[in-house]
Request: fold
Amino acid sequence: MARQPEQEGSKPRVIRHRVRTAAEGLRRVEVTVPANDSGLVKSVASALRAGGEEAARVREAFASMTAIEPARTGAELLAFLRASPLVGEDFTFERDRTTGRAVDLD
Reply:
């Protein structure tokens, strides 16, 4: 299918759209999936974009199926720790102050 030439003024409109969606916390992603799964992927994306209870159910369903990637930045690590089920628990950690044991390195 041949592409139509871009209409005059369409680039600024696209730029404004991208700036607006980024400000709303949205990120555009492109994925390649089998043709028969494209409707499913679009439905999942739509539910996540809409938010609410349905998005929470989708996230919960996928969380058990996907591996969690290690944090790459301090902000990601902080977000991970804040999402921990142990948040709010009262822990006391103490360091072992013993001198250890003697080791013969000869």
Summary: The chain has a mean pLDDT of 84.
